[in-house]
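Lab intake sheet, docking and co-folding queue.

SAMPLE TYPE: protein with bound small molecule
LIGAND NAME: zinc ion
LIGAND FORMAT: SMILES
REQUESTED OUTPUT: full 3D complex as structure tokens
PRIORITY: normal
SUBMITTED BY: R.K., bench team

The fields below were copied directly from the construct record.
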Amino acid sequence: MNFFSKLRLFTLFIFLFFQGSFASAWGFFGHQKISRLAVFLLPPEMITFYKTHIQYITENAVNPDKRRYVMAQEAPRHYLDLDIYGEEAIDSLPRYWKSALEKYTEDTLMAYGIVPWQIQFTKYQLTKAFENQDLENILKLSVDLGHYIGDGNVPLHTTSNYNGQLTGQHGIHGLWESRLPELFSENYDFFFERRAEYEENTQLRAWKALRIANQALDSVFRFEREVTEQLGERKYGFGLRNGFTLRVYSQNFCEKYHQKLNGQVERQMRHSIKMIADFWFTCWVDAGQPDLAILLDRKMSEEERQKLLSEEQETLKKAPQIAPQRPHEN
Ligand SMILES: [Zn+2]
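RESULT FIELD (auto-filled):
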């Protein structure tokens, strides 16, 4: 093999290493699992409707991540870099969007992410969709709301060091939210004693979730460093992805890291699931508890179903090469 062939192979390797660890928040797998499980916590008046549409809800759980490639304003909806606003940001940032706009410019807010406010905004939209008995939007917005709530519960979505790029821990994003759930969530306990409950103040609940996620960050970074020191070269192994051999975090590394995290990923997944169910339920109650059986009777025509399902494909097809404002992939 001549030098240039080697160089090409090496370049391909590097490219695939980063591509291979591409991850949206919670990864495809995690988002799907979270949204799906939330359906089963709904009360009898809602569960039949959501179960009927569970395939749509599951398959489209990462739609909002795909939209980042076509809509510049989409990217900031998935995170909030709390550290940018100082150490006490979780307490000092204005709770409501209107007050946030009085304190900071919209450009600043958009630059560092808006996830807690976006959760509240989507909550209003979903409530409206229930009020209007608007089947398509109930489904779309349930998916969106579930996604943003899922993101808000991911510790690495609350910091500007979102992929360990500032601390030499590059790749930690995909590790925590994709690789670990893929490897270990089979054994997580997803039994819930309490079903969906009404949330008096959804905006404050979003901030509470963000606080918990942010408090978990210290362990996310510290344990990665500790296991890295412990394993040295054995940090990485090789895995097969799309027919290519790639360098990935070794199974041994993942197991040790996961053990140190002591249930953290499971806890954050559980928080997400319960919070999504609570929010869907709250939207429905705030909309006056519309009879969803009527919507089921009015089943979507095949045409409507296709339109809804193909939205995702259309979005991707149209995608110009606009880079998202701040990619969350590795
Ligand atoms: Zn996302």
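REVIEWER NOTE: The first helix runs from residue 3 to 20.
SIGN-OFF: pending second check by T.M.
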